[in-house]
Amino acid sequence: MIARPIYAVLEREVVRMLRQKTRLVSAMVRPLIWLLVIGTGFGTVIGESRGIPYQSFLIPGVIGMTMLFGAMLAALTTVYDKESGVMRMMIIAPLPHFWIVIAKVLSAALAAILQALLLIVLLALLGFISAETDFALLALALLITSLACAGIGMLTASFTRTLDNFAAIMNFVIFPVFFLSGSLYPVQNLPEILRWIATINPYTYGVDLLKHAMLGSTTMAADFSRLTDISVLISFTLLAIAISSWRFSRETAYEPMIHRLTGPKR
Amino acid sequence: MIAPAIDQTTTPAAISAAGLVKRYGALTAVDGLDLEIPAGQFFGLLGPNGSGKTTTIHMLATLVRPSTGRVRIGDIDVSQHPVLARRQIGLVFQESALDRTLTVRENLRFAGWLYNLPAAVSERRSAELLELFDMTDRRDKPVVTLSGGMRRALDIVRGVLHEPRVLFLDEPTIGLDLPNRRRIWRFIERLRARTGMTVLLTTHYLEEASPCDRVCFIRKGKLVDEGEPAALVDKLGRHILEVEADDLDTLKARLAPKLGDCLIDGDTAFFRHGEEDLSELAQLQTDTAELATAWRVRRPNLNDVFMWISAGKELRA
């Protein structure tokens, strides 16, 4: 019943992702720059963080970064869909409108997972993936972290009218979410205010779960328990979907889109 | 070409609206509209800019909730069952609803999935419709490379892929040049001939509404008049007199007692004449020869009906 429409949205996202080569390439280059440039640079200053080399500590962080950026950009295409008109095709289709939100969240998560998998393959080729990696937990972490990142993106998209605000979204959403998490440093080492912010940042728990999966079970790199990470990520995703659906179901959400028509003709 | 004969006593209207009102704050966009459109009818909803046409279509198509009033598509109440109603309708928006980065085929594939069509069905119907619209050779082209007319045609294909019973076309030819407008109309004609679907359209180009079975003029969200296009034109009179003059006020004062109310557009006044016999007009022309710089008598058309209604005047002189 609903499977085909959801499949439609997922397929379109993948087709578009594969067609936008620069988006894919930069999704790979960005984390590698962090790892190889920043990681090496800071590694020489910091040395070891909680008993492991800084560069290794950074691996879950850069995988998380790929998922965060990948999911955010994909979820924000919802705003593009509203502007370009594809959303018109979706709102007139015979499905309750909250399914559009769910489909977009799933497609953004899928885009994030595919990019993260590609990065993991690259990292493995470069010898950065530890043999101690718990691959089952890694798979779970990829799945629920990408969903949570897609949730952040969808929430942002549902409060955004045009992509003209993209720089603002970058500065006030994506960067803070990334920097104020455990991606670059252990959360426990942060000053109190920053630690507090990192604790309410759902993305923090995604990176933390990745650390559990990738840095071996004996290290102290992770800040929270696995169960905490998993529950926070799942709860946040559900909450984000609920709020976005509510935002989306108000008719004023698409009235500007269908009423722009009465304005100047193209 | 001819809609299938339908026994209207037993078949519910394809579209019916009762007491439809939409308010946006202090603005009343649609003000108590009643519509009853039988299945298979080709119906034109006409009116000046901002008269509430698009809001009406969006209420009929479940996208905007009426402030009060009720809409039914067949026997489905759209407020209670919007999803079921959307299954029965196709809507071609005034602006494109396509993904420009995808090809024609990919767009239709996407639309087909949204309507829960199996891939094979969607593929077959796309092929047939593109054939019907002479677009088979564009199938693998990205939408961004299509001309405006082609894109609109594709939007219509997209709107009818799921074989709706009711098709809404909101200004289907707006922004297109004349050859492309004619083409779109040929496509719509072919579609109606093939499927017999009910079509409700809005348009600014009044001459395009003359093939409609019935048209309805709205102004400030209210129904002003409705009927067969030819009957409405007849209502206006037998002739339209266009007079140009430098001193229109004096001319108007001289002619109004004989011909009634007129419309003024720039330096031209438009009067109606209800008689087939032109001798009265000929006499008036002689009487006002010193005032009028040009004097034309012609048959009225839907554009005249539109102008009189837009000006808020009664059609009958």
Descriptive terms for the model:
heterodimer; A: mainly alpha; 2% strand; globular; disordered C terminus; B: 317 residues; 4-stranded antiparallel β-sheet; 10 helices; elongated
Please tell me the total number of domains of chain A: 1
How large, in whole angstroms, is the Cα Rg of chain B?
Answer: 23 Å
Query: What's the end-to-end separation of chain B, in Å?
Result: 35 Å
The overall strand count of chain B is 14
Helix content of chain B: 25-40%
Q: Order of strands side by side in the largest beta sheet of chain B?
A: 6-7-8-3-9-10
Helix count from the secondary structure assignment of chain B: 10
Q: Which structural class is indicated by helix and strand composition of chain A?
A: mainly alpha
Global mean pLDDT of chain A: 88
Please state roughly what percent of the residues of chain B sit in beta strands, choosing from under 5%, 5-15%, 15-25%, 25-35%, 35-45% or over 45%.
Answer: 25-35%
What structural class is derived from the secondary structure elements of chain B?
alpha/beta
Radius of gyration of chain A, Cα only, in angstroms? 19 Å
Instruction: Please report which band the strand proportion of chain A falls in: under 5%, 5-15%, 15-25%, 25-35%, 35-45% or over 45%.
Output: under 5%
